[in-house]
Design goal:
Elements: E1 2-5, H1 8-18, E2 21-24, H2 30-33, E3 42-45, H3 60-88, E4 91-96, H4 109-129, E5 134-141, H5 147-151, H6 153-160, H7 167-172, H8 184-194, E6 206-209
Parallel strand pairs: 1-2, 3-4, 4-5, 5-6
Helix pairs in contact: 3-4
The structure holds nicotinamide-adenine-dinucleotide.
Nicotinamide-adenine-dinucleotide binds near residues 6, 7 and 46.
């Protein structure tokens, strides 16, 4: 198992905990992405970042960065790993998308664009990979209890004009029927289903774990 992140301390902890091989990489550097190992059976595209601002104030460099890390890097990783998977006749691509791959929210133009793009790419990989035993799917969580969510509380409060302590109820949990954050472990368990024994026929799908957000 190869774990890739730019956070070297986090990778070292993961290597100790899960026995993963740590491969520190800044995923916005596409040349560095192209130097990562390509003999991967199961590719999980998970790295991501958020920026909250209205479009007329959205820093264009930030927009490019988010597209690069969350759409172009997964493309680069897939295009290099797929020949290995095809040669084996088995492979899995699991894309950690978001409810924002299926729905938009104001002030998240780059993130929503990147996730919608990832949805499209996942389906293309599914169609191309099917005859080679390769599946590709997206998981679409609502808000998950992670640092990415904690970091956006202040920005969400500012852009929505509400106090930070109101963001959870008024913004994050407002569209969901299950009124709690998703736990990271739930996403990991769901990902494991997509490369587990019952996964052969699940492909090209966008699988919601959004507490009912997209039921509206
Ligand atoms: N937290 C949520 O509410 C939520 C909801 C739906 C989907 N997601 C998705 O889940 C995935 C994981 O997000 P998270 O909530 O755990 O966020 P997080 O900020 O806790 O973790 C993101 C990880 O990506 C890494 N990363 C960011 N930019 C990178 C770069 N340029 N190069 C290398 N690594 C980089 C970070 O170092 C970090 O370890 C993301 O794709 C995110 O969009 C999160």
């Amino acid at each position: 198992m190869v774990a890739v992140d730019r956070d070297e301390a986090g990778l070292a902890a993961l290597a100790r905990e899960a026995g993963a091989e740590a491969a520190p990489c800044e995923l916005s550097d596409l040349a560095a992405v192209d130097a990562l190992p390509a003999d991967i059976d199961i590719l999980v595209n998970n790295a991501g970042l958020q920026h909250v601002a209205p479009i007329h104030e959205f820093d264009p460099d930030r927009f490019s960065l988010i597209l690069r890390v969350m759409l172009e890097a997964p493309f680069r990783l897939a295009r290099r790993a797929l020949p290995h998977m095809y040669a084996r006749g088995w492979g899995r691509v699991v894309n950690i998308s978001s409810v924002h791959g299926l729905r938009a929210s104001p002030f998240k133009s780059a993130y929503v664009s990147a996730k919608h793009g990832l949805e499209g790419m996942s389906k293309v990989i599914a169609l191309e990979g099917a005859e080679h035993g390769v599946t590709s799917n997206c998981i679409n969580p609502a808000y998950v209890r992670t640092p990415l969510v904690e970091r956006q509380l202040a920005d969400q409060a500012r852009t929505h004009g509400i106090p930070p302590e109101a963001v959870l109820d008024k913004v994050m949990l407002e569209p969901v029927a299950v009124k709690r954050l998703v736990e990271p472990e739930e996403v990991a368990e769901f990902a494991a289903v997509l490369y587990g024994p019952a996964s052969d026929s699940i492909t090209g799908a966008s699988l919601s774990m959004d507490g009912g957000w997209t039921a509206h």
